[in-house]
Amino acid sequence: MATSPCSSSGVSSSSSSGLGADAGLEIRTRSVEQTLVPLVSQITTLINHKDKPKRSDKTLQAIQRVGQAVNLAVGRFVTVGEAIANENHELKEEMSVACIEARRAGETIAKLTDVTSLDHPESDSHITIFTDKTGVVKAARLLLSSVTKVLVLADRIVIKQIITSRNKVLATMEQLEKVSSFQEFVQIFSQFGNEMVEFAHLTGDRQNDLKDEKKKARMAASRAVLEKCTMMLLTASKTCLRHPDCESARLNKDGVFHRMRLALEQVIEIVTDSRPNGDSEMAPISIYSGIKEFKNKVEGLRENLYFLSKENLSTMLEVILEHTEDFTDSAYTSHEHREHILELSKQAKMELEQLVSVWMQAQNQKTKDVMEDLEVAILKTCQCMNELKREVHSAATSLAADLLKYHTDHMVLKALKITGVEGNLEAVAEYTCKLSEQKEQLVEMCRLLRHVSGTEPLEITCIHAEDTFQVTGPQIISAAETLALHPSSKIAKENLEVFCEAWESQLSDMSMLLREINDVFEGRRGEKRVYLSLPRPGKHNANLKALKPVKLDTEEQAKIAKLGLELHLLTSDVDSETEKWEDQENEIVQHGQGMSSMAYSMYLFTRGEGLLKTTQDLFHQAEIFATEGTKLASALHAFCDQIRDDDKPLLLLEAEKLISMCRQLQITAKTSVQGKSATFTKVDACILKTRNVMTLLCQLLPLCCKLLRKNKSGNGCIKPAPPWREDKIRTGTNAHSPERRAETFGIKSLENHVTNMTFLESK
């Protein structure tokens, strides 16, 4: 379904003014949507100006300034759009038409707002905003539509970059599959590593830019597969080269290549919003989402007795109860849970029968007694569904907790490594059977957890975990068989280690996922987003031994636990402060939320949990955190330029302090160290400096919120933004190198031009 560019941008007044962009354009990314916000604000200010009989010179000047600012900004915006068109010939025609429309609409708005030189702005002799408000609305609608087209076309270039990068990765993968010598393999894998890094950066930016949380979660899952498979591809390919006649080694390698191709394909599906053969994505409905929808329909009967049929309600309950069979039919569900689920299913049918009976009666006679009976029936039905929800949650999470605890020692994996090195084929066969049983248990656990995950992103994470266990299990078996056949092979041993590490890593991720599912169920911070740090620096280098990742041991975790806890508490404080802002799309809020999410992932690292697995991950995350802090400081400076208040010097001082602290953190994160002791000291320093930045953030957010409210209430003054700086547009026309072009031409450069437009409150 297409959406107006301002439909979810928080600019509600635009719809009341009759504004809207081309209905055929769907805004899928935050950067495009947020770029339109200042433009919508400007135009809305013009259209919603108060029609007073007497207009002061100050009002007329303000209106003219807004009109000129819009026209000037659009002119420069169009210049960048035209430069993009010249760089991308396949989009030139469409982009040129959109640019012409935008320029024409901007000029029209400037003419209609040219009112300060007139003695009587409302006279019929000169058409202005006062005499032709419909003309302004038409010009505004055309402007929004054409600017949106330019942005969406520019976004296509980003998509094209990702597709091109994917194609390069695929082409190099085909070469890797066919190599027959180690020397040739090392050369091609080095190229492959660089291409994977480029692809990871492009898709990482895209993932963070996506509006749809479901697509964002699918993208994260696909990128996680590609990250893990890159290392698997290296060792599996080397094993195959060393033992070319070994069937299990070939199967092992083929499995990795196949999985990487599927993940690459899924990334492109998400980016292009398409599926092969036109198939629509039909994810199975979970019990949680089914119960939620069912309860909404039942409670809707209080407002309207006729909005759905009893057959619809009965069908919805049947679907939910069919899904509960996943629990009652499972060999891993306890007898007690199975009995309770069956009892509650039976009770739910009885409660619905009673509800339907009273509901039909209420349609015929709306007496006080009947309506009271209906309310009781609604409450009892919803209560029964809540109890069913609680029971399936308990069944799934208790099973998961037991399995994760039971398999935490990784005894089967250890036994496979030992028996493989011994060349004991019979023992390897015995332990592969045990691993297959373990895989079935974990797959069943993921399926049941999906039903109770509570949010679509967590559902997708459960599906991803299920796929990982399904695929990695057989790959471990083929790697173990290869080692058993060639027990003296160092590369076969290393290959088995890599696949076992992937299994252990997924089990560790399941512990965090279980915690998040419980958090959602209990209403805690279960939807806290953790940034993925893909790619890990050096991860895709052909010479990986020199960059072996390091994890904190138990003693080091204990030393850093207090600092981690302080960081955790600060993320909660920052979250509380950001929730107080009315405008959740505000740039300051979004940078604050991003920093809080990254700090939370760093806290999880201190506990040995989360997506940051190694010290190298942590240092990379600290760099991104510092960069985000610098962006926040820039947003604070821009905010200061818009206000006049006694607290402004204090805010500027704090912003400068933030820049200094982020610079120090970045230097610390980038400093190379060697040795266990030095690495731990660096970890400690990164966490400490992150904590200090978060402490400052806790002071900055309430100050900004107070200033914003004060200015909105009229106690302060929001002044016009400074005029356009010429160096802004020069960056759009003097880009020659590929790196500079990638930085200049695209959404970011367009975003810079639009977001610098003046915002003037209508007086």
UniProtKB/TrEMBL annotation:
Residues 1-20 are annotated as: Disordered. Gene3D superfamilies: Alpha-catenin/vinculin-like. InterPro entries: Alpha-catenin/vinculin-like_sf, Alpha_catenin, CTNNAL1, Vinculin/catenin. GO terms for cellular component: cytoplasm. GO terms for molecular function: actin filament binding; cadherin binding. Keywords: Cytoplasm. Its main location: cytoplasm. It is found in: Cytoplasm. PANTHER family: ALPHA-CATULIN. This is Alpha-catulin. Belongs to the vinculin/alpha-catenin family. Residues 7-18 have a biased composition (Low complexity). One of its GO terms (biological process) is cell adhesion.
